[in-house]
């Protein structure tokens, strides 16, 4: 091994904390985020890196991030070739991360960077996943809060796993969990499920989620509904089971009703009545059948997407200081 790669190796094993920030058109917030984040990281004894993942922003966010690199050598800037969605951006960050502990944080300052110190504390105690649970949802509408509550209830009954309620993507993962997640092959990155699937020692810290610092959320209700659907269908086949049960109940009911009608006709004769009941039964069964076909379609769609095996994201550029330089600077700081 030559000197550079030895230093590189030494450097890689020296990184303790990676902070991953996926962002999409956040140029207004990024400077405040960066100054708060570096203030926190500078106060930590750990060697850190910040991985900014540009999810195909169309504003000047990427230039803003690359500007940070002149004053801070711990900044690595990753840029995806287009907008792949936050899940893919996070996956990219996880793949490039080198730290023994990895923190995922939103760019919009809804997740306070100051909490990273507490999260690391838990990690040092031996936890592999530190979930950050929202105590209050500031700046969110009543409707959003209610729909979120109902959704979690539904998700946890259907998926029957331990997806903690009101925990977003803000969390700390240990290296071994990150390695397992990086090996998970699915294209459908429903991160809430993916983060809790590996298990290991998990804990929950509560925090107050702030309102967005500026800009708009990129989620609308239509997208959220899609995400909700993804969550259920990518982590559970219970809806299919429910459809089977539902179908069996209806089939059994129809059988008895059918027998009843036959008996009624044989013993009492049948004047042509029953148009309303006929219509109701017809429509109800038709509706249920369509629903179940739709449900099947959801799963088949997912099989189709998985079968294509396309990459999760494409990286357009990586800008980072050579490892040796960062190492030097860190040595000086330490
Ligand atoms: N984000 C991203 N790609 C997208 C949409 C969002 O990387 O396609 C980032 C966004 O810049 C922010 C984080 O994901 O850092 C959370 O997004 P947002 O605030 O819109 O979601 P919310 O907080 O409302 O769940
Ligand atoms: Mg946000």
Helix % is 40-55%
Q: What is the CATH topology of the largest domain?
A: Spore Coat Polysaccharide Biosynthesis Protein SpsA, Chain A
Write down the overall geometry: elongated
The run of helices and strands is: HEHEHEHEHEHEHHEHHHEH
| Helix vs. strand class | alpha/beta
Beta content comes to: 15-25%
Number of strands: 8
Spatial order of the strands in the main sheet? 7-5-6-4-1-2-3-8
Overall average residue pLDDT: 82
CATH-scheme architecture of the largest domain:
Alpha-Beta Complex
Largest sheet: 8 strands, mixed
Poorly predicted spans: none
User: How many domains?
Assistant: 2
Q: Which ions, cofactors or small ligands are bound in this entry?
A: uridine-5'-diphosphate, magnesium ion
Radius of gyration: 26 Å
What is the tally of helical segments? 12
Query: CATH class of the largest domain, please?
Result: Alpha Beta
What would you say this structure looks like, in words?
This protein has 334 residues and is of the alpha/beta class. The chain has two domains: 3-236 and 312-329, Spore Coat Polysaccharide Biosynthesis Protein SpsA, Chain A (Alpha-Beta Complex), CATH 3.90.550; 238-308. Helix content is 54%, strand content 16%. The protein is built from twelve helices and eight strands. The chain has helices at residues 3-14, 30-42, 61-71, 86-96, 116-124, 142-159, 175-183, 191-196, 221-235, 238-268, 275-308, 323-333, and strands spanning 17-23, 48-54, 75-80, 101-104, 129-137, 167-174, 202-209, 315-319. Strands 7-5-6-4-1-2-3-8 form an eight-stranded mixed β-sheet, sandwiched between helices. Strand 1, helix 2 and strand 2 form a beta-alpha-beta unit. Helix 6 packs parallel to helix 9. The longest helix is centred in the last third of the chain and has 34 residues, at 275-308. It is elongated, with a radius of gyration of 26 Å. Residues 22-24, 26, 55, 83, 85-86, 89, 106-108, 110, 212, 217-219 line the site of uridine-5'-diphosphate.
């Amino acid at each position: 091994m030559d000197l550079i790669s030895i230093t590189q190796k030494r450097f890689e094993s020296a990184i303790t904390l990676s902070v991953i920030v996926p962002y999409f058109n956040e140029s207004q917030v990024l400077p405040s985020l960066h100054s708060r984040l570096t203030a926190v990281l500078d106060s930590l004894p750990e060697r850190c890196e910040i991985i900014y993942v540009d999810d195909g922003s169309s504003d000047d966010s990427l230039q803003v991030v690359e500007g940070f690199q002149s004053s801070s050598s711990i900044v690595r800037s990753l840029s995806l070739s287009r907008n792949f969605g936050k899940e893919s951006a996070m996956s990219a960050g996880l793949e490039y991360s080198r730290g023994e502990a990895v923190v995922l944080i939103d760019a919009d300052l809804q997740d306070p960077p100051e909490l990273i110190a507490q999260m690391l504390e838990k990690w040092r105690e031996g936890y592999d996943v530190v979930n950050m649970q929202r105590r209050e949802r500031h700046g969110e509408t009543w409707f959003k809060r209610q729909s979120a509550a109902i959704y979690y209830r539904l998700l946890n009954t259907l998926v029957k796993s331990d997806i903690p309620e009101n925990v977003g993507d803000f969390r700390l993962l240990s290296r071994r969990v990150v390695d397992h997640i990086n090996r998970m092959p699915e294209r459908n990155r429903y991160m809430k499920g993916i983060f809790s699937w590996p298990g290991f020692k998990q804990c929950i810290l509560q925090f107050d989620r702030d309102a967005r610092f500026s800009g708009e959320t990129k989620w609308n209700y239509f997208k959220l509904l899609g995400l909700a659907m993804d969550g259920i269908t990518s982590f559970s086949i219970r809806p299919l089971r429910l459809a089977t049960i539902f179908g069996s109940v209806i089939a059994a009911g129809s059988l008895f009703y059918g027998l009843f009608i036959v008996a009624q006709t044989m013993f009492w004769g049948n004047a042509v009545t029953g148009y309303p009941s006929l219509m109701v039964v017809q429509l109800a069964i038709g509706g249920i059948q369509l629903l179940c076909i739709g449900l099947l379609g959801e799963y088949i769609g997912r099989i189709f997407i998985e079968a294509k095996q396309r990459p999760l994201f494409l990286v357009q550029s990586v800008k980072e200081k050579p490892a040796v330089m960062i190492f030097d600077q860190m040595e000086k700081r330490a």
